[in-house]
Specification:
The chain is of the alpha+beta class. The protein has helices at residues 87-99, 151-160, 166-181; strands at 9-18, 23-30, 36-43, 47-52, 58-66, 71-75, 78-80, 101-112, 123-133, 144-150. It folds into two domains: 9-43; 47-181, Nucleoside Triphosphate Pyrophosphohydrolase (Alpha-Beta Complex). Helices cover 21% and strands 43% of the residues. The strands form three sheets. It has a four-stranded mixed β-sheet with strand order 7-4-9-8, sandwiched between helices. Strands 1-2-3 form a three-stranded antiparallel β-sheet, with no helix packed on it. Strands 6-5-10 form a three-stranded antiparallel β-sheet.
């Protein structure tokens, strides 16, 4: 796993907004090229995302309402880490909460940094297999439908532009690469 090593320095950090999930700071920084500037940064606790794959090579996906983008989009299950929570524990919790499935086998596929221009969020992506039905337990702000999509069709949906969510695209491509190795 590649880790980011800061080469600039932060002179001052001011909390602009304390949110339910993340905080926004204005930071006065000296960049590696010695430029001094103010930047707005989202500090995020991290997240986990899951590619839940059935024995029949279908992926359990969500059609989820997202106010920020103005409608419903295709996504893989995912969620924000609770304080002190490990990414795998978050992935296991979110799979059950959002889809109503549990998985017996978990594989770490990798980590992504979705928007490094203004956020430190990192998302750990897992492949979940050996799925069994459990009990869905949505949060009050989760408006979604659980759908089964053939894995090959999900990859085609990316090419057609039907799937635009970055973590979903990365997760499906990471799962495809892993499946081609086994």
């Amino acid at each position: 796993m590649t880790m980011f090593v800061p080469s600039g320095s932060t002179n001052r950090q001011t909390l602009i907004h304390k949110g339910r999930v993340f905080n926004v700071f204005q930071e006065n920084v000296r960049l590696p090229n010695d430029v001094l500037m103010n930047i707005d940064v989202i500090r995020h606790p991290g997240a986990a995302a899951i590619v839940p794959l059935t024995q029949n090579r279908t992926v359990i996906m969500l059609q989820q309402y997202r106010h920020a983008v103005g409608g419903t989009i295709w996504e893989i299950p995912a969620g924000t880490l609770d304080s002190g929570e490990l990414p795998l524990a978050c992935a296991q919790r979110e799979l059950t909460e959002e889809t109503g499935y549990q998985a017996a086998d978990w594989r770490m596929l990798g980590e992504i940094t979705p928007v490094p221009g203004y956020s430190d969020e990192r998302i750990q992506i897992f492949l979940a297999t050996e799925l069994t039905i459990s009990v869905q337990n949505l949060d009050s702000d989760e408006v979604l439908d659980v759908r089964e999509v053939a894995f090959t069709e999900a990859l085609k949906m990316i090419s057609r532009g039907d799937i635009q969510d970055a973590k979903t695209i990365c997760g499906l491509f990471m799962a495809d690469a892993w499946l081609k190795k086994v």
